[in-house]
Amino acid sequence: MTEPAPRRRPSRARWVRRALFGAVLVAGLVVGGTAARVWQVARLDDQRPADIVVVLGAAQYNGKPSEVLEARLNHAQRLYERGVAKTVVTVGGAREGDAYSEAEAGKRWLLGTSTRAGSAKESLPSDRVIALTTGSDTLGSIRAVAEEAKQQGWRSAVIVSDPWHSLRSRTMAQDFGLAAWASPTRRGPIVATRETQINYIVRETGALLYYRLTHAPANDHTGLG
User: Fold this and answer.
1) 3 state DSSP class of 92
2) Using an 8 Å Cβ cutoff, are 109 and 102 in contact?
3) What gap in Å lies between CA 106 and CA 100, rounded to an integer?
4) Would you say the pTM of this structure is higher than 0.70?
């Protein structure tokens, strides 16, 4: 009776190819799942009552908010007027040579002491707006908010930024112990075209994955804060 031929074991090269294929597949699922989550949260507008509304910083020019920042401030003012929170917190530091920080420019706009393009809204009371002028990125700004929250007794926050930035900023705030939700603005150049939206979803996917791996900021100059 003929002995069956012994089964050949997969070669080392085949094992390596299988491992590489598995790693690529897992990485693709993680990246794709994160991108889908960024897109999903970007579509939400959570305006539940909170202790504060936080306006994440963006570029300003000698105290005048950029289009991106002004869109956020407009939205934050609407949230205040709807009674979402009794206090609005603007955040963001200054770059070298700037006369104003992003937080100061935001506060000036909300108080009506800087130009409001096409806006006839009344300004907010001065004791209802707090500017936190530290933080050169999202993580630094959220950390400043969390530290101020401990002193003020704030426990919850609605974060105003751009849609694609919602998940990362909300995640950071929750990691610092705040009950946090996102109410993004739907106006401004970042939401103007489909191509821009796709670019920012890709960028935010990478930034969020980097943060989850390192708990460090993905420093950039995109204007997302």
Assistant:
1) coil
2) no
3) 10
4) yes
Please answer whether residues 48 and 183 qualify as being in contact, where contact means their C-beta atoms are separated by less than 8 angstroms: no
DSSP-based three-state secondary structure for 8? coil
The three-state secondary structure class of 129 is strand
Tell me how far the alpha carbon of residue 35 is from its chain's centroid.
14
Backbone angles phi, psi at 4, to 5 degrees: -65, 145
Residues sharing a CB contact under 8 Å with residue 210, sequence separation 6 or more, in sequence order: 216, 218
Give the integer Cα–Cα distance in Å for 197 and 50: 28
59 phi, psi to nearest 5 deg: -60, 145
Tens-binned pLDDT, residue by residue, of the chain (225 aa): 556 655 566 677 777 777 776 766 666 676 788 888 898 888 999 999 999 999 999 999 999 999 999 999 999 999 999 999 999 999 999 888 788 999 999 999 999 876 555 454 678 999 999 999 988 899 999 999 999 999 999 999 999 999 999 999 999 999 999 999 999 998 877 776 778 888 888 999 999 999 999 988 776 444 444
The amino acid present at 206, given as its one-letter code, is: G
Reading the block at residue 166, the tokens are 């919602």
CB-CB contact of 184 with 14 (8 Å): no
Neighbours of 214 (CB within 10 A): 9
Q: Burial code of 139-178, b = ≥16 C-beta within 10 A, e = fewer?
A: bbbbbbbbebbeeeebebbbbbbbbbbbbbbbbbbebbeb
